[in-house]
Amino acid sequence: MKKPTLKELIISAEKETNPDDWYRQGLILERFHGMSKSTLLQYCKEMDEIPEFAEGLLRPGPSTTFVHYQTFLWFLKWKDTNKYLINKLSPHEVLGGVTA
């Protein structure tokens, strides 16, 4: 199965806003087989600290977190893009350069 590009993910997300795109953390773990809960919590903490990704998290209560699936994919793509770079790209450089 072909992986969608970042541009395809953004275009898809902008065309459709769907409540089904928001997942509890446990369901994210089910979709990403092998990801540990501690890794997901660390990723959510990182997302929360980066304005471009912070909107992908909703915390309506102290023990309830919803994660926007497409934004989470963008975050993972950003981390993947930067993993071996000496001069890291900002989220704005990765996400801001995509046009529909």
Shape call: globular
How many domains comprise the coordinates?
Answer: 1
Hey, roughly how much beta strand do the residues contain? Answer: 5-15%
Spatial strand arrangement across the major sheet: 1-3-2
Q: How many helices? A: 6
Mean pLDDT: 83
Order of helix and strand elements from N to C terminus: HEHHHEEHH
- How far is the N terminus from the C terminus? 23 Å
Radius of gyration: 14 Å
**Helical/strand content category:** alpha+beta
Poorly predicted segments: none
- Share of residues in helices: 40-55%
The largest pleated sheet is described as: 3 strands, antiparallel
Number of separate strands: 3
Describe what you observe in this structure.
The chain has 6 helices and 3 strands; from the N terminus they run αβαααββαα. The chain has 100 residues and is of the alpha+beta class. The protein has one domain (18-96). Strands 1-3-2 form a 3-stranded antiparallel sheet. A hairpin with a 2-residue loop joins β2 and β3 (64-68). The model has no long low-confidence stretch (mean pLDDT 83).
